[in-house]
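subagent[fold] <- orchestrator: predict structure for attached chain, return tokens only, no commentary.
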Amino acid sequence: MDRILIRGGRRLNGRIAISGAKNAALTLMPCALLTDEILELRNLPRLADVDSFMHLLNQLGVSTMVKGTSPAEFGRSMTFKASKITSTVAPYDIVRKMRASILVLGPLLARTGEATVSLPGGCSIGTRPIDLHLKALQALGAEIELAAGYVKAVAPKGGLTGGTISFPVVSVGATENALMAAVLAKGTTVIENAAREPEITDLAECLVAMGAKIDGIRSDTLTIEGVERLHGARYSVMADRIEAGSYACAAAITGGDIELVGARRDSMAATLAALHDAGIHVEDTADGLRVFTNEEIKPLSLSTAPFPAFATDMQAQFMAMLTMARGTSLLTETIFENRYMHVPELNRMGADIEVRGRSAVVRGVDKLVGAPVMATDLRASMSLIIAGLAAEGETQVSRIYHLDRGYERLEEKLQGIGADIERVGDG
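subagent[fold] -> orchestrator:
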């Protein structure tokens, strides 16, 4: 199994390309199920999760083709064509690899009137039930049955019908599934307390490009007027705000100066505000954002919450950065109950972090020291990389398959801005 070796202590400097967003890509790909015409997605990141989702779509009858990009390039353009849905079953052996597979449920149900999807897998960062997904589809008339680890959804004889979906709590995935189902439902659907993440906006704008009628984009109330069919479209995946924030933390902890090419300020305002409060400078450039510092990192008090607040997907990376702040920081995780599994690994590197229930107290230290550490989930993996970039000596990060799910060719990008980092096999 591959590992990543980092010899830390180098100041990162230069330009780094921000890839298409993983979370957006995995939301846009199932849109191909909603039309028999070609959907072309540009700027798709080269990630294990994207490949897994492509294989799932292939199994459902979607033909895919990569267009004109070399393996040396970041990102790629891919076409999807679901002329005919050949299967409405998303099997366990594929779905277990990533939680985003549940997003075929809504579009399959809307297009064919039925869908059978295995209960999803993904990172072990806490309980993430799909009950809100199911209640949303029931509000559109679907009958739901749970049996043998699968969800079976069936639409009424005349198809899904519009209705009011009011989420008791904000759910990104449930909003996405509801939105994709509603665009082909008869009549008007209103989604209340909808998630407002930029990836939701990306999905809505892609659906509009395909002929959907959606009002209230970027707000917490979406109104969808169902249409009989959608057509093909070309659409570019938004830049990955989490990748951009991760590399910003790497710049900060190494006292570096990095231009995040393609990064969008409007999609990561809470991250940029937290960086500012920590004493990190961020400037707009013609191509993205410049992140730099020559000062000590200031401690922070942060709490995760749905967009536009501070993202749970940035908590681990900020924790790594704050291990070297001058003072004590307090991080509170409100989204997932098991998202501090990286804490023991950071402490192995000399960090001083104490978990108290849903909060973590991070006391800044003068230095980190390289050590063998093990990744436990996607964002935890990146926190160990960030810590390793600043640590004295060598850090070995194992179980890096988590990283390959969400960071496109990470070691190549970091090598390009001065990091001493390489991927090695056990042999």
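orchestrator: received. Logging for downstream: The first helix runs from residue 22 to 28. The first strand starts at residue 3 and ends at 7.
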